[in-house]
Amino acid sequence: MSARFIKISLAYLVLGASLGIYMGLSQDFTLMPVHAHILLAGWLTLAMAGVIYRLHPEAAGTRLAQAHFWLHNLGLPVFMAGLALMLSGRANLPPVIGTGAIALLVGFVCLALNLWRRI
Ligand code: HEM
Ligand code: HEM
Questions:
Q1: E strands within 1-119?
Q2: Which residues have a Cβ under 8 Å from the Cβ of 28 and sit 6 or more positions away?
Q3: Euclidean distance between the first and final Cα of the chain, in Å?
Q4: Beta-sheet strands, E only, within 78-118
Q5: What is the mean pLDDT, run by run of 10 residues, along the chain of 119 residues?
Q6: CB-based contacts of 107: which residues, under 8 Å, 6+ apart?
Q7: Ligand 2 atom closest to Cα of 33?
Q8: What is the pLDDT of residue 5?
Q9: Distance from C-alpha of 5 to C-alpha of 78, rounded to nearest angstrom
Q10: pLDDT recorded at residue 19
Q11: pTM of this prediction?
Q12: What residues does ligand 1 touch, defined as CB less than 6 Å away?
C-alpha cells in the first residue's frame, strides 16, 4: 500500500514539474493553479500518505485506505483536467470540476477516518 501511494505520487511530480517548465518557457501562467494542485494534492499529499502507511502499517491495507487511493487518483485527474480546460478557455465544465474535487475531498475524509481509527 505504501509503495503504491509513493509510486503514483511520482507520476504527479513528473507531470506537475513538466507543466512548471512549460509555464516558465512559455511565460504563460494560466495553468498555475493546475501546476500547484498536481504537485501539492498529487505528489506531496500522496507521498505523505505513503510515508504514513510505512510508519503505521496497521492503517495500510484497510478498505478506507483503498477507498482513499481510488477516490484521490480518479478525482484529482478529473478535477485537474476540468480546471485546465476552464482556465485555458476551451470548455467550461463546473460539474466535472466539482465532481472531481468532491471525490478528492471524500478521499481525504477516508484517509482521515482511517488514520484516526487505526493509529
Ligand atoms: C521543475 C520544477 C518546477 C518548475 C519549473 C516550476 C515552475 C513554476 C512557475 C513558473 C510557477 C508560477 C510562478 C508565478 O506565476 O509566480 C510556479 C508556481 C507554483 N509552484 Fe512550481 N515549479 C516546479 C516545481 C514545483 C514543485 C515540486 C512544487 C511543489 C511541491 C511546486 C509548487 C508550486 C506552487 C504551490 C505554485 C504557486 C505559487 C503561488 O501561489 O504563488 N512547483 N511553479
Ligand atoms: C478538494 C481539494 C481542493 C480544492 C477544491 C482546492 C481549491 C482551491 C482553490 C479554489 C484555490 C484558489 C485558486 C485561485 O485563486 O486561483 C486554491 C488555491 C490553493 N490551494 Fe487548493 N484546493 C484543494 C486541495 C488543496 C491541497 C490538498 C493543497 C495542498 C496540499 C492545496 C494547496 C493550495 C495552494 C498552495 C493554493 C494557492 C496556489 C494557487 O493559487 O494555485 N489545495 N485551492
A1: none
A2: 22
A3: 16
A4: none
A5: 97 98 98 98 98 97 97 98 97 96 98 97
A6: 67, 68, 69, 70, 71, 72, 75
A7: 41
A8: 98
A9: 18
A10: 98
A11: 0.96
A12: 17, 20-21, 23-24, 29, 32, 35-36, 39-40, 43-44
Residue type, 46: L
- Cβ neighbours of 28 (radius 10 Å): 11
Alpha-carbon span 59 to 55, nearest angstrom: 9
> Would you mind telling me the total number of residues written for the chain in this entry?
119
CA distance 32 to 91: 17
Q: Which residues line ligand 2 (CB under 6 A)?
A: 32-33, 36-37, 40-41, 44-45, 101, 104-105
- How confident is the model at residue 14, as a pLDDT? 98
